[in-house]
């Protein structure tokens, strides 16, 4: 199963990716599916992502929102998929677009907009600071990515992003294992990602990096814990695979 099937993605959809453990990989996997459908897709970020390989991806840098609409229109005439940011940072990152500018992508002719709306410092799980995530107001779907490889790792800077926030929200000590109860508590906490939802926006956890039978068992434990906390849908899979979704729990 792919993301379009699992999420029933239609044209004129803006998807934001948050969390840790494969947001960028997931974003480009969805873009690949959109490309196969012939959809015009814009990939962007409200934070920053690793700068894409320009031999593979069409990158548009636009420092001014004044020129953004015209620039996007021109790029989409030549390519069905473009990556948009404002600049390239000294450390090789693509700096993102203001969240309020996202509607311009649809005005320019995009069918799908994919936005990485969170940073995790390369970790597979994170605690959310007060200013995170930066989700566009017109977002239709939030995919919260969690890497299954974070399961049972110590809640420490070595394994997770912002361990002090995780420990505080889950009411466990620093160094405690990141078990299914801690993961699910963070994901559904009122001060976490669900608090960023608007009425029309669906929130779907995606347990990523599941590539073995043992990891599938672990992912299902996390998903069942989320379901007990009234989460409507949980995706399990590996974004790197051609069929990225192994299972959907409803």
UniProtKB/TrEMBL annotation:
Species: Anaerobacillus arseniciselenatis
Top-rank taxon, per record: Bacteria
GO molecular function: ATP binding
UniProt protein name: Hydroxylase
Pfam family, one: YqeC
């Amino acid at each position: 199963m792919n993301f379009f099937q699992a999420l029933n993605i239609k044209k004129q959809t803006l998807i934001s990716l948050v969390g840790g453990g494969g947001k960028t990989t997931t974003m480009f996997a969805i873009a690949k599916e959109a490309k196969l459908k012939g959809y015009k897709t814009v990939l962007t970020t409200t934070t920053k992502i690793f700068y894409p390989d320009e031999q593979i991806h069409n990158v548009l840098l636009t420092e001014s929102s004044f020129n953004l609409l015209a620039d996007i229109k021109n790029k989409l005439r030549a390519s069905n998929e473009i990556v948009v940011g404002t600049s390239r940072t000294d450390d090789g990152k693509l700096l993102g677009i203001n969240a309020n500018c996202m509607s311009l992508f649809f005005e320019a002719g995009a069918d799908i907009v994919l936005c990485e709306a969170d940073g995790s410092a390369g970790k597979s799980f994170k605690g959310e600071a007060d200013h995170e995530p930066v989700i566009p107001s017109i977002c239709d779907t939030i995919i919260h990515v969690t890497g299954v490889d974070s399961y049972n790792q110590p809640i420490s800077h070595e394994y997770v992003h912002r361990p002090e926030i995780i420990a505080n929200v889950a009411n466990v000590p620093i160094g405690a294992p990141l078990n299914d109860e801690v993961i699910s508590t963070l994901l559904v906490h009122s001060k976490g990602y669900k608090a960023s939802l608007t009425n029309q926006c669906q929130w779907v956890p995606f347990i990523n990096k599941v590539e073995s039978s043992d990891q599938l068992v672990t992912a299902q434990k996390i998903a069942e814990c989320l379901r007990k906390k009234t989460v409507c849908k949980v995706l399990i899979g590996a974004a790197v695979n051609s069929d990225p979704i192994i299972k959907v729990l409803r």
